[in-house]
C-alpha cells in the first residue's frame, strides 16, 4: 500500500504539486492521529513523538527530492519517513514492534529506516544523524551519482557541537547536503529562547552555508525555498541550511498532556486556528480553484480508509519470533 | 605463512601496504583523518599514500573527530569504504556517539537493511612519555559494544592481513595499533593474503602455562617465555588477535592443555579485556585448571608522565616471568 504516490517531477504543474502536497500533509496528520489513538488504547509499546502541526516542513522539502536522494530523520520522524515515500502499513507495523515493520520490529517509532526510499534512518540521539547525512552527501559527491542528502533536525540539535563540525566539513568539501532545522519552539519542555543564543541563521552563515528562513506552516513556501537549496546543492554549489519556523501541536511525546507549565493553551490554539499548514493550503487550493471542497473531501475519505486499513494490518500482523533477537547484529 | 619471497618490513609499512593494496583493489576505499595526506600522520604511517591516490581519497580533515567519524558512517552506508584515522586512541572518546550509537547499531536497528563497512584505525599503548591523554589503551570499551569488531595486531604480518580483512568486512571494525610497535620489523610475504577476524594465533607452543597476550603485550609475553624456558617452564603464547569476535575455542583448548593461564593486556584490568578472557577460560576450562586464571593489565591510575612512574604502570617481561613462575609454584 502506498499512500504517497509516485509522481513525475517534469510533468507536475504547480497546482498539481500543491494538491499532491495537500494529500501528503493530510496523510501524515491522519497517520499521527492514529498513532496517538494506538498509544491511548495501550496497543503501542513505548512512546511516540508526534509531528502534528509540522507537516508542511517534511512535505515541502521531500516534494523537492528525488526518490533516490537521501534523508535522515529524528525521534519525531514519522512525517519525514512518510513524506519520503514510506508505506503507512509497514510504518504502523514497526511502531507496534511487528515483523512486517520496516526494521522487522527492531527499531520502533524512533528508528524507521528504508533504503528503498533513501531513508538512512530516524535517530533518537539529538543531532545523531548530522554526520550520517553529511557522509551520504560525501559519498554521493565522490561516486558522482547526483544525489543530495537532507538532514532534518529540531532546534534542540542546535545545542550539539557535532552539527557545527559537519557544517564546517560540508562547506569545506562543498557537499550536496541541506540541513533543515525545524524550529517548533520547544526543546522538549523548554522554550528555545532559553537554550539558543544569538540568531540561528548566523550559525550556518558563519561557515558560509547558503542559509534561509521560511514560514514552516506554508508548504508552498517551504517547497520553494527547499527546492532552491536542493537544486543548488545538486549543481555542486555547496551545502544549504533551511530554518523552518513551525509549531508542535502536541506534547514532546504522546504522554506529555499537561503542558501549561511550559506553554499556555492560548498559544497552542492560536497556531492551530490561524497557522495550520493544512488549513492554509486548503484555503489556497479553494481560492485558486485548484480543487473544490468535494474533491478535497474525497481525498480525505480515501486517506482515512487507507490509514484505517494500515492500522488493521499492523494490529493483526505477527511479532517476530524470539529467535530473531540475535539476527542482524553483524552483516 | 608462505615460505617464498619472505622479506622484513616494519609494522608501519605493513599497515601502509595493506591500505595501498586495498585502495588499488577497490576505488571506494578512502582514508579520512587529521594530517593523513602530505603529513602521513605524526607517526608517518601513511606517508606516500596521498601521492598515489590523491587528496580526494586521502582526505585531510579538520580536528573534528565526531564530525568526520560520523561522516564516515554515512559514507559507508551509501557506497564508500572509509578508513578513519584517529591519531591517538585517547581521542576515541570524541567519537563515542558515532561509533556506539550510530555505526554499531545501524545494521540491527534497520532490521539488517543498512550496513556500515568502515574501519577506524587508532592507537594504544603507554611508555612513550606522552602522559595521561595520549597513552591509554581503551579497546575494551569498543569490545563491549554489540555490532562492532575490534582488532589488535601484534606483528607486521598480522597487521597487514588483519587490516585488509577489516577493510573488506561489511561491519564497523576498530583497529588498534600499538604506537610503540610501528618500527618493529617482521616477515611479510610479498604475495596477497588476508587473515580472517576471529582466529587466534599460537605465537609460541608450550605445555606448562598459557600466556594469553594482546597487541603490545605479545612481545612482552614472548620475552617472558624465553626467561621461563631458562627456568624450566614451557610457556604457550596465544594472541587472540581480535577481542571481538573472540576465538574462545583456541583459548579454552590451550588452557585445558597447560592448566595454568595468565591473561596480559595493556588496557585497564578493571572490567576489561583480561576480565572477559579470564572469565571465558574460567567457564570453559574450570575442571582442567590447576590455578586461578591470573590477570595482568595497566595499573588503575591515569598514565603518569614521569618515566619511572609510567614504566611502573604496565606489565613487563620480568613481571610476567615472576607471575608465571609463582603460578607454576616454582618460586
Tell how many strands the DSSP assignment of chain B holds.
14
The assigned structural class of chain B equals alpha/beta
What is the molecular shape of chain A?
A: globular
| Percentage of residues assigned to helices of chain B | 25-40%
CATH architecture of the largest domain in chain B: 3-Layer(aba) Sandwich
Radius of gyration of chain A: 19 Å
**Domain module count of chain A:** 1
Explain what this protein looks like in three dimensions:
The complex is a heterodimer of chains A (331) and B (331). With 331 residues, chain A is α/β, with parallel strands linked by helices. Chain A has one domain: Thiamin diphosphate (ThDP)-binding fold, Pyr/PP domains (Rossmann fold), CATH 3.40.50. Chain A is 43% helix and 12% strand. In chain A, the strands form two sheets. In chain A, strands 2-1-3-4-8-7 form a six-stranded parallel sheet, sandwiched between helices. In chain A, strands 5-6 form a two-stranded antiparallel ribbon. In chain A, a hairpin with a 2-residue loop joins strand 5 and strand 6. With 331 residues, chain B is of the alpha/beta class. Chain B has two domains: 9-187, Rossmann fold (3-Layer(aba) Sandwich); 201-327, Rossmann fold (3-Layer(aba) Sandwich), CATH 3.40.50.920. Helices cover 36% and strands 20% of the residues of chain B. Chain B has helices spanning 11-25, 49-53, 65-77, 96-103, 106-109, 139-143, 156-168, 216-230, 248-258, 273-285, 307-311, 317-327; strands at residues 8-10, 29-33, 58-60, 81-86, 119-124, 149-151, 173-178, 185-187, 201-204, 209-213, 235-239, 242-244, 261-268, 294-298. In chain B, helix 3 (65-77) packs parallel to helix 4 (96-103) and helix 8 crosses helix 12 (317-327). Chain B is globular. The two termini of chain B are 37 Å apart. Chain A binds chain B through residues 70, 72, 101-107, 111, 113-115, 120-121, 123, 125, 128-140, 142-143, 145, 149, 161-162, 165-166, 168-169, 172, 327-331, and chain B through 28, 30, 56, 61-62, 64, 66-80, 82, 97-98, 101-102, 106-117, 146-147, 149, 170-171.
Amino acid at each position: 500500500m502506498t499512500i504517497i504516490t509516485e509522481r513525475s517531477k517534469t510533468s507536475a504543474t504547480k497546482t498539481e504539486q500543491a494538491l499532491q502536497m495537500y494529500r501528503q500533509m493530510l496523510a501524515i496528520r491522519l497517520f499521527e492521529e492514529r498513532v496517538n489513538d494506538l498509544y491511548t488504547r495501550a496497543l503501542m509499546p513505548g512512546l511516540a513523538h508526534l509531528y502534528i502541526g509540522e507537516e508542511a516542513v517534511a512535505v515541502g522539502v521531500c516534494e523537492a527530492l528525488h526518490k533516490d536522494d537521501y534523508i535522515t530523520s529524528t525521534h519525531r520522524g514519522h512525517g519525514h519517513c512518510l513524506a519520503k515515500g514510506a508505506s503507512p502499513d509497514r510504518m504502523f507495523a514497526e511502531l507496534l514492534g511487528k515483523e512486517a515493520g520496516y526494521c522487522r520490529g527492531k527499531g520502533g517509532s524512533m528508528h524507521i529506516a528504508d533504503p528503498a526510499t533513501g531513508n538512512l534512518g530516524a535517530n533518537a540521539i539529538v543531532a545523531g544523524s548530522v554526520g550520517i547525512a553529511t557522509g551520504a552527501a560525501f559519498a554521493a559527491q565522490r561516486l558522482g551519482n547526483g544525489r543530495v542528502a537532507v538532514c532534518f533536525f529540531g532546534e534542540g540539535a542546535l545545542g550539539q557541537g557535532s552539527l557545527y563540525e559537519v557544517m564546517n566539513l560540508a562547506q569545506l568539501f562543498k557537499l550536496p547536503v541541506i540541513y533543515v532545522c525545524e524550529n517548533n519552539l520547544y526543546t522538549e519542555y523548554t522554550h528555545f529562547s532559553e537554550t539558543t543564543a544569538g540568531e540561528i541563521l548566523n550559525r550556518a552563515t558563519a561557515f558560509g552555508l547558503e542559509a534561509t528562513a521560511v514560514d514552516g506552516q506554508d508548504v508552498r513556501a517551504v517547497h520553494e525555498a527547499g527546492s532552491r537549496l536542493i537544486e543548488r546543492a545538486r549543481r555542486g554549489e555547496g551545502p544549504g541550511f533551511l530554518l523552518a519556523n513551525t509549531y508542535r501541536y502536541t506534547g514532546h511525546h504522546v504522554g506529555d498532556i499537561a503542558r501549561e507549565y511550559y506553554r499556555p493553551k492560548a498559544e497552542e490554539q492560536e497556531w492551530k486556528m490561524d497557522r495550520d499548514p493544512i488549513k492554509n493550503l486548503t484555503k489556497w487550493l479553494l481560492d485558486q480553484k485548484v480543487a473544490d471542497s468535494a474533491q478535497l473531501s474525497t481525498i480525505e475519505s480515501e486517506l482515512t480508509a487507507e490509514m484505517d486499513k494500515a492500522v488493521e494490518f499492523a494490529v493483526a500482523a505477527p511479532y517476530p519470533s524470539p529467535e530473531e533477537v540475535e539476527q542482524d547484529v553483524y552483516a | 605463512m608462505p615460505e617464498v619471497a619472505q622479506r622484513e618490513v616494519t609494522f608501519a609499512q605493513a599497515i601502509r601496504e595493506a591500505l595501498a593494496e586495498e585502495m588499488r583493489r577497490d576505488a571506494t576505499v578512502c582514508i579520512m583523518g587529521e594530517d593523513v595526506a602530505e603529513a602521513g600522520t605524526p607517526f608517518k604511517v601513511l606517508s606516500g599514500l596521498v601521492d598515489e591516490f590523491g587528496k580526494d581519497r586521502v582526505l585531510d580533515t579538520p580536528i573534528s573527530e565526531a564530525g568526520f567519524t560520523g561522516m564516515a558512517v554515512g559514507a559507508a552506508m551509501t557506497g564508500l569504504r572509509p578508513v578513519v584515522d584517529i591519531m591517538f586512541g585517547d581521542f576515541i572518546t570524541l567519537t563515542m556517539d558515532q561509533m556506539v550509537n550510530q555505526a554499531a547499531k545501524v545494521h540491527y536497528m534497520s532490521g539488517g537493511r543498512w550496513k556500515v563497512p568502515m574501519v577506524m584505525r587508532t592507537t594504544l599503548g603507554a611508555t612513550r612519555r606522552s602522559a595521561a591523554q595520549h597513552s591509554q589503551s581503551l579497546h575494551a570499551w569498543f569490545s563491549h559494544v554489540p555490532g562492532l569488531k575490534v582488532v589488535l595486531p601484534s606483528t607486521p604480518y598480522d597487521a597487514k592481513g588483519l587490516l585488509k580483512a577489516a577493510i573488506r568486512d561489511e561491519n564497523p571494525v576498530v583497529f588498534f595499533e600499538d604506537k610503540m610497535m610501528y618500527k618493529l620489523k617482521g616477515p611479510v610475504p610479498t604475495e596477497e593474503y588476508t587473515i580472517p577476524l576471529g582466529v587466534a594465533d599460537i605465537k609460541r607452543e608450550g605445555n606448562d602455562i598459557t600466556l594469553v597476550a594482546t597487541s603490545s603485550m605479545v612481545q612482552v609475553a614472548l620475552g617472558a617465555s624465553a626467561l621461563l624456558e631458562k627456568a624450566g617452564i614451557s610457556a604457550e603464547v596465544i594472541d587472540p588477535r581480535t577481542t571481538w569476535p573472540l576465538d574462545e575455542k583456541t583459548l579454552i583448548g590451550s588452557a585445558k592443555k597447560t592448566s595454568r593461564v595468565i591473561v596480559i593486556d595493556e588496557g585497564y584490568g578493571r572490567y576489561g579485556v583480561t576480565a572477559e578472557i579470564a572469565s571465558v577460560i574460567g567457564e570453559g576450562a574450570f575442571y582442567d585448571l590447576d590455578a586461578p586464571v591470573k590477570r595482568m593489565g595497566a595499573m588503575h591510575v591515569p598514565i603518569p608522565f614521569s618515566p619511572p612512574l609510567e614504566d611502573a604502570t604496565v606489565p613487563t617481561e620480568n613481571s610476567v616471568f615472576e607471575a608465571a613462575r609463582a603460578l607454576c609454584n616454582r618460586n
